[in-house]
Amino acid sequence: MSNTSFNGQTAIITGAGEGIGFEIARQLAQQGANVLLNDIDPQKAADAVSKIDQESGNCLSLPGDAGDLTVIQSMVDTAVEHFGELNIVIANAGITTFHDFFTYPQEKFQQLVHVNLQGTFFLVQAAARQMRKQDKGGRIVLTSSVTGHQSHQYLVAYGMTKAAVEMLARGLVFELSPYQITVNAVAPGANITERTLLDDPNYAEVWKKLTPIGRAASPADIANAALFLVSPHARHINGQTLVVDGGWSTISPGPDLEGMV
């Protein structure tokens, strides 16, 4: 894709202060999109916007809880007020909680559902309403995970939410296709981000050995897949999940998670 593939289009990306979300926002801006970048951490959001603006251009910060319906509607309204319309949404915000199933606390479960499910569902709803009003179609991508496909120790609740996100993409085909709005998901495997390295400084080395292709993904690997799905090249792909895991889910070797809970 050229560096103007998304020229003039407007995109919202949640959870984009760092990692995969940031790289998606950066690449979209580089390729001509107007980007509204969300993160729950105001400083991370501001720093991310500053980096993107130094490289390419039109990026706005809208920090806040991506699971909060007021914040969600504000993102959509701000995109339209500043840029005229909304064309692309990447529902990327999510949290991960490692915990034994038998002792998993209700508070953690509710936090997980608030961001991963409520945030995703209602962002898509608000965005789709705007896209339907515009009558120009639209592209929506949801961030899932290979843990929505394969069993992973201590990630039962997290994997459940990611499987639900993929069902949302499939279920919305019936609802949104008449308006030329496509909805797909990306399911990353192990990927090297600030957060995963904070959880485990040896993350890259561990997953190098466990991933058939010989390395964990970079944020750019996932961003490339997401940009394909929101591009004209993917206009006939709808309700699908693209797994980006270097082949891990075909054999599914697990890491040693002692000490993670």
Write the layout of secondary structure elements.
Elements: E1 10-13, H1 19-30, E2 34-37, H2 42-55, E3 59-61, H3 69-83, E4 88-91, H4 106-134, E5 138-143, H5 156-176, E6 181-188, H6 194-199, H7 203-210, H8 219-229, E7 241-244, H9 248-251
Helix pairs in contact: 1-2, 1-8, 3-4, 4-5
What do you see in this structure?
Helix 1 links the parallel strand 1 and strand 2. The longest helix is centred in the middle third of the chain and has 29 residues, at 106-134. Helix 1 (19-30) runs parallel beside helix 2. By secondary structure, this protein is α/β, with parallel strands linked by helices. It has one domain (10-190, 219-248): 3-Layer(aba) Sandwich (Rossmann fold). The chain has a seven-stranded parallel β-sheet, with helices on both faces. It is globular, with a radius of gyration of 17 Å. It has nine helices and seven strands.
Keywords summarizing the entry:
261 residues, seven-stranded parallel sheet, 13% strand, 7 strands, globular, 46% helix
How would you summarize this macromolecular structure in one to three sentences?
With 261 residues, the chain is of the alpha/beta class.
CATH architectural grouping: 3-Layer(aba) Sandwich
Structural class call reads alpha/beta
Highest-level CATH class: Alpha Beta
**What is the mean pLDDT?**
92
- State which percent range the strand residues make up: 5-15%
N-to-C CA distance:
42 Å
Spell out the CATH superfamily: NAD(P)-binding Rossmann-like Domain
Backbone CA Rg = 17 Å
What is the CATH topology assignment?
Rossmann fold
Domain count: 1
Largest sheet: number of strands, sense, barrel closure:
7 strands, parallel
Please give the order of strands in the largest beta sheet. Answer: 3-2-1-4-5-6-7
Molecular shape: globular
Number of strands: 7
Helix and strand element order:
EHEHEHEHEHEHHHEH
**Proportion of residues in helical segments:** 40-55%
Low-pLDDT runs: none
Summed up, the helix count is 9
